[in-house]
C-alpha cells in the first residue's frame, strides 16, 4: 500500500497538505517549461501525457506552448492550474 503525502503529513500532526507543494515541485524542476512527455515525472505520476492531451482537445487543460509537434506548459501557469484543480 502506498502512503501519500497527505497521509504522511497527517502522521506528523499536520491537518492539511501544504499549499506550497506545487511551488516546491516547480522549484525543483529547473526549467520554465514542462514538456507534455515529462508531465508524469513533474507531477509524480498524478497526471499522464495522454490525460493532458485529452484536456487540451477539450480546451480545459493548462495554457500550452507548441513548437512544431512538441507541446509544453509554462511552469507558472501549470502550477496555477494544478492549484485550481486540487482539492483540500
Q: What is the C-alpha radius of gyration, as a whole number of Å? A: 14 Å
For the record, give the distance between the C-alpha atoms at the N and C termini, rounded to a whole number.
22 Å
Dominant shape: globular
**Can you count the beta strands?**
3
Overall SS class: alpha+beta
- Number of helical regions: 5
Q: What count of structural domains?
A: 1
The percentage of residues in β strands lies in 5-15%
What does this structure look like?
By secondary structure, the protein is of the alpha+beta class. The protein has one domain. It has five helices and three strands. The protein has helices at 5-11, 21-29, 39-43, 49-58, 75-85; strands at residues 33-35, 65-67, 70-74. It has a three-stranded antiparallel sheet. A hairpin with a 2-residue loop joins β2 and β3. The protein is globular, with a radius of gyration of 14 Å. The mean pLDDT is 84.
Amino acid at each position: 500500500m502506498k502512503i501519500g503525502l497527505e497521509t504522511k503529513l497527517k502522521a506528523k500532526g499536520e491537518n492539511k497538505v501544504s499549499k506550497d507543494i506545487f511551488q516546491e515541485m516547480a522549484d525543483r524542476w529547473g526549467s520554465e517549461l514542462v514538456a507534455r512527455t515529462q508531465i508524469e515525472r513533474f507531477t509524480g505520476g498524478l497526471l499522464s501525457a495522454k490525460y493532458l492531451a485529452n484536456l487540451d482537445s477539450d480546451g480545459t487543460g493548462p495554457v500550452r506552448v507548441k513548437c512544431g509537434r512538441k507541446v509544453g506548459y509554462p511552469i507558472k501557469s501549470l502550477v496555477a492550474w494544478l492549484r485550481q484543480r486540487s482539492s483540500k
